[in-house]
Protein 1
Amino acid sequence: MTDLITLQGRTALVTGAATGIGHATAQLLAQAGARVVVNHLHQAEAAQALVDGILAAGGQAVAIGADVSQAAEVQRLVDQTLAVTGGIDILVNNAGIIQEKAFLDTTEADWDRLLGTDLKSVFLMCRAVLPGMVVRGGGVVVNIASDLGILGRERYAPYCAAKAGVIGLTRSLAREFAPHQIRVNAIAPGPVATAMVSLEHMSAEWVEKELATPQHRLADPAEIAASVLFLCSDLSRFYCGQVLGPNGGSVMP
Ligand SMILES: NC(=O)c1ccc[n+]([C@@H]2O[C@H](COP(=O)([O-])OP(=O)(O)OC[C@H]3O[C@@H](n4cnc5c(N)ncnc54)[C@H](O)[C@@H]3O)[C@@H](O)[C@H]2O)c1
């Protein structure tokens, strides 16, 4: 890696990092030299295995469990992170859930759970982390949205609304915090081979539809992590409020 993409000396907090895109991101940021905080939700074993792998490769990492949809849990996560690291330079808001349901069957509880995890968590994490970045004189936030937040998708209204909200929140924070040398950007991935795109969460019909892109394939999580690394690095220092689209061609603006 060139010096431009070294994250040596920086601390990165990645939410929902025990699996999937968050897991690949934590691994890649650690490989680039960052000290990584691996947040997880009740996946202590998987998170510790990731941390152990990073440590064995000569990197620095620690696992901290917390539900990022709950304000008190977010504050505890950030307080514990600061106690261990002294400061947060990079925040990757990756944690998320998905639900397939006809709109007219969608309950208020479904809406609150989805929006709480996929959108409110980004608000809570940014509210807890940005003050420290302002004091430190800079930082980077990368929010994981989705191509579905741009395209919309039948039977996924709350998810699409949440991810569109993440894009709006990203652009607003990018404008508000640019004067503090804090860069806020988003990534809107297309279909990625993780647990989220599985029969556990989607009907076979929709898993098949996920493949309907020009490249006709699911991404490997590492292909999304590469975009996160770029946005975290100094290579992207003129990126502000942008939405990168590693999506196999699902969206061509
Ligand atoms: N897989 C895809 O096709 C795809 C496409 C576009 C965007 N995304 C987004 O990428 C992100 C990562 O998803 P993934 O595909 O890696 O799936 P995943 O299910 O492997 O990862 C999501 C992670 O978030 C964690 N999480 C859920 N709720 C949480 C909470 N309240 N607090 C803390 N952690 C929580 C889960 O435990 C899990 O480890 C999500 O935001 C998702 O919406 C995924």
Protein 2
Amino acid sequence: MIWWHRSEWVKMRYISLFSGIGGLEGSKNSPDAVCEIDPWCQKVLSRKFSKAELYPDVRTATPPPVEVVAGGWPCQDISAAGLRKGLAGERSGLFFKMLELASDVGAHTIIAENVPNLLKIEGGRAFRLVVTALQQAGFTSVAWRTLNAREFALPQNRNRIFLVASKFRELAASLHRPVNQGAVISLTRASGFYWTAGLQGICYSEGYVPALKIGSSIGVPSPPALYYDDMVRKASADECLSVQGFPLDQFVDIPDKAKFAMAGNAVALPVGTFVMDGVFEAKNPDYITTDLFPTEGIPRDGVDFGSGTLAVSNKQSELSANLGSFIDRSINEPLSGRAARGLLSRLERSGKPCPKDLLKKLRDLSITPNLLEEASALRSSS
Ligand SMILES: C[S@@+](CC[C@H](N)C(=O)[O-])C[C@H]1O[C@@H](n2cnc3c(N)ncnc32)[C@H](O)[C@@H]1O
């Protein structure tokens, strides 16, 4: 059994690394410094955290002393879709840079985030290396937890793993407090799926969208499709930011291509806030009790307080299915005939399932070229 007790809000100085658009940084305790290499993300960060120092590269940053370091380090070498070089990869190896910085600035706690595949790659060795490296650097109590954006009233099936590693056991244990958000279901029927997929299955999702992706390696956005009423179309960049929980006023004048990438990279804002608030805030019940179990492998929710891995049995929260409330009904551009034909052909070859009504709609779209397609065909032939 672990218990967690805090009685008051504690103002802690903290720096955010790999800040992106600040999905981990939604707590009312805002960062003293942020660090982000992408110029469009920097623009958003300077709007959100105008008083914070901005470092453009974690490899050269020289932040001030702080108590907490937070960061979702790059996942490309870890994600199932990536090259899976693991922590030896150039980008995902930046984890060690984060650890080095946290030690240099005298932090007592590191809050980190990555894709769930981190638990699996190299048969779990990469994750054990992360935990051991944290503990050897003095962050002896390590807790991790897999959280889904749908547990936080968002219609996106996005699982991410969060770690809190601390010199204080109760700060690490705060990660395992109950979520208690309550599921939201929309009355309007809407579903999401991947129109670019087909061979691996389209991840058809009633009431939510599959996890947003970063886009292709050459920067081509890859948003999911939405299906509602009689409409099938690609999700807009703003809708992608909305299903991640971001208010749109911080993204004025940012190009769609950058917004798609930001949304695909980010931590869903209420999920990041929950994780950070556990360390900073005391709005939770005074005592939290959580059962711990010995385990062979690496559990999706667990702790290592210095004497080996234990699994944590967090109660599974109810999952929201409120996509209908996130749809911008002023958008009227259906999926192109070409895209529908491509998807239909991939579905046919793979034999993967697709609901009948959606299949019919895709067939209709595939034989009805839309006006935009016709116009662009005319333009290129003239
Ligand atoms: C997984 S994303 C983190 C997203 C962030 N947590 C959010 O909610 O938006 C990793 C971020 O690290 C940034 N990045 C990659 N290399 C970097 C470096 N050397 N220095 C600073 N930022 C870097 C990327 O541009 C990207 O925005």
Protein 3
Amino acid sequence: MVRKRCGRCHNISYSLSARGRWVCPECGEDLTDAPLERPDRSTANIVPVRPPALEPHDLN
Ligand SMILES: [Zn+2]
């Protein structure tokens, strides 16, 4: 299960696979080339490899 966040309406949509065409069900934005959202449940302290360009998170 993967998910993406729409850059236009910020709706999170889910899919079984990141392959294929992906369109936001809310506004119809084409999310095919949008980056995948990482599933972050209550694992805030377990941070996988993040791209350095992301804004720093306050790990309090
Ligand atoms: Zn949207």
Protein 4
Amino acid sequence: MPNNSEVGGPLAGRLDPISLKKNFSDLHPPLDSHEAAVAADRCYFCYDAPCVTACPTDIDIPLFIRQISTGMPVASAKTILDQNILGGMCARVCPTETLCEEACVREKAEGKPVQIGLLQRYATDVLMNVDDHPFERAPSTNKKIAIVGAGPAGLAAAHRLALLGNNVVILDAKEKPGGLNEFGIAAYKSTNDFAQKEVAWLLKIGGIKINYGKLLGRDFSLSGLRDEYDAVFIGAGLGNVRSLDIDGESLRNVQDAVEFISSLRQAKDLAELEVGSNVVVIGGGMTAIDAAVQSKLLGAYDVTVVYRRSMEEMPASLYEQELAKSKGVKFIYNSRPVQIVGTEGISSIKFQNTQHDTEFSLPADHLLKAIGQIMDELPLELSRENNKIKVDENFKTDVANVWAGGDCTSIGEDLTVTAVAQGRDAAINIHASLSGEI
Ligand SMILES: Cc1cc2nc3c(=O)[nH]c(=O)nc-3n(C[C@H](O)[C@H](O)[C@H](O)COP(=O)(O)OP(=O)(O)OC[C@H]3O[C@@H](n4cnc5c(N)ncnc54)[C@H](O)[C@@H]3O)c2cc1C
Ligand code: SF4
């Protein structure tokens, strides 16, 4: 029976290992070569293809699909990776339903797009299983660039800079690379330790060194990096989360959703991970959906996402909301929490309807807060815009020789693919600037 009292609280091991393995297997199983050929055949190879315009990394989608359909998956992967070195991860995590596949002419005409994401995964998987790294570095420039953060933005910047002949040192606070690819993305989107395998593959380009356990402000400073290196790129992401600022937030089993997902991603045995019986997730973005779905898949009896605005206004796409509903997650819209109730641990949450000022309560023994991430108070003497680092169209900050990209900047959506695009473009600008081209 559901256990929703503060006496109980989250439990581990509700499901047996076989059910857990099944629940956390690939969300979209990969295509085999026959399925890939059939899927590729549906592409019209459009001139001025709208899918390309919709891709933040401008991958030549008709070209890579044609290369699959003509039996050249390795060449196809090269087309993808030329533009997006984390094309393997993006194939797994991109919200394609709001990007390339939404723009696909076959989506517009028939409501059934070409499966661009799965085809990208097919090609990149083939290439990454071939031992060779397909890129060769240009002759050395003798320039040294420091990168703060080994997330998608930092890794994409590092690869492009190394490719162009520069030497790169990445400093990251954690003990593992990948940023949110490793600690945030839902477990069923990135299975079989793919994030680590992809970084190991990326580093085969050479010329990139990663120093782990190095925290900006404690172990090094921006001014120190500027003295030691020719340029600095900041890809530190958003290390902090918003709080609800209501009574009861410090009760036991009130947890930040990113922290919950991070423990899940790092768990050696999912059966040991504690999850409530009645889980309430507050928020409306990808993090809220991922936390809710994963709670359900871990064995929570009842999971409800509560969002302060309407279904249509939710930042998570309707596709993601439907996915969560298909796993048994419930949604309550137009409601905001006003009090978390309990003595030691949480037992219920009081909400107010944002449209007609009525109140209601939900029993809860685990509350996951997913109301947005914010920047850490980084000791950076850089101008801010909307509480993030201010950059120009080339990702240059207002301090000489310092660039920034990814979630920590004030431009672009907070998506893996956007972070990759910004890291890559900043790197191209850094290289051009150091080599005197601009
Ligand atoms: C739960 C969750 C699920 C998500 N799911 C998706 C998804 O399905 N699809 C999608 O496209 N996007 C998703 N996103 C968004 C995506 O993960 C981010 O947009 C992307 O990771 C941003 O990359 P980044 O390199 O800018 O930052 P991050 O990935 O956050 O990497 C920043 C790196 O900097 C390091 N760092 C931070 N501060 C310091 C410091 N002071 N000193 C040294 N190192 C530091 C960190 O350790 C980290 O390695 C999700 C985000 C979350 C939180
Ligand atoms: S829009 Fe669709 S059909 Fe046209 S090139 Fe892109 S994937 Fe192919």
